[in-house]
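Dear H.,

Thanks for agreeing to be a second pair of eyes. The structure we're designing against is below in token form, covering all 273 positions.
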């Protein structure tokens, strides 16, 4: 249950956020604040007046995130998973129409469910979105500048009480959200440059706090690597080190030898079936 909540929150965070420049400090965080948090009042959300500067600042930051080309339909690859020392290898097949499918022998039911959701989140949120239909549809505002080294804060004023920080380099630095009983904060520490002017996260930290007491529940450090296959940047590795309840665990997903699906080939397979 905890893993599913973490993954769902992480998916939200990256579906709304941009990326930061390689070897540059620029965190990322998702916010939703419970009813009694100062800026978490329905009245304030409904009364918020959109700020054009906030809109452009967040729109530009999100435009810097590397995404799949419009004609991308999927890929197949070798897949490996190391769940805190328990390893499994197999194959991965992803299509934008059908989602994630993989075959790995020896995984527990819990690990298999975690892996599928992790891969789905990682791949689905690399797809391009329409800012105007996402965060842009809300009345974005700029609170008083607190001169944080993480950058200027932007309040989304949505039902999730989302907020961002935009680094001085123009990229998303932080996303902060409260998901049910947990407040999740994601901070990007380093990114990888991909296409000209585009970036993907390389190192980031996700901290989960109790939404009521603000006690730290767990801390997770992520490392991600990417590989270019033709004109597409695909995930090659995701490593997650989790500190929770006095224990450290590590999980690694590795994707190798990826081959892109071609539209004609996919159509023929569909007709053959």
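And this is the sequence the design step returned. I haven't edited it by hand at all.
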């Amino acid at each position: 249950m905890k893993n599913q909540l973490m993954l769902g929150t992480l998916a939200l965070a990256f579906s709304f956020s941009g990326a930061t420049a390689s070897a540059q400090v620029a965190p990322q965080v998702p916010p939703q604040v419970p009813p009694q948090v100062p800026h978490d009042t329905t009245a304030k959300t409904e009364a918020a007046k959109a700020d054009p500067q906030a809109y452009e600042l967040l729109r530009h930051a999100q435009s810097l995130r590397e995404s799949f080309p419009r004609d991308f339909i999927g890929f197949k690859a070798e897949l490996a998973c190391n769940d805190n020392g328990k390893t499994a290898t197999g194959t991965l097949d992803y299509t934008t129409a059908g989602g994630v499918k993989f075959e790995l022998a020896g995984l527990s039911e819990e690990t298999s469910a975690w892996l599928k959701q992790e891969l789905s989140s990682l791949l689905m949120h690399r797809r391009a979105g329409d800012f105007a239909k996402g965060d842009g549809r809300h009345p974005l505002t700029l609170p008083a500048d607190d001169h944080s080294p993480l950058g200027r804060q932007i309040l989304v004023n949505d039902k999730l009480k989302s907020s961002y920080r935009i680094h001085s380099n123009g990229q998303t630095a932080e996303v902060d959200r409260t998901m049910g009983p947990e407040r999740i904060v994601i901070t990007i520490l380093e990114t990888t440059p991909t296409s000209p002017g585009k970036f993907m996260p390389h190192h980031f930290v996700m901290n989960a706090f109790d939404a009521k007491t603000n006690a730290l529940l767990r801390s997770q450090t992520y490392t991600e690597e990417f590989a270019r296959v033709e004109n597409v940047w695909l995930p090659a590795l995701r490593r997650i080190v989790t500190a929770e309840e006095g224990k450290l665990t590590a999980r690694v997903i590795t994707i190798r030898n990826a081959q892109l699906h071609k539209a004609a080939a996919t159509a023929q397979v569909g007709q053959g079936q």
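Two observations from my side: Residues 21 and 200 are 8 Å apart (CA to CA). Residues 109-124 form the longest helix (16 residues).

Warmly,
E.
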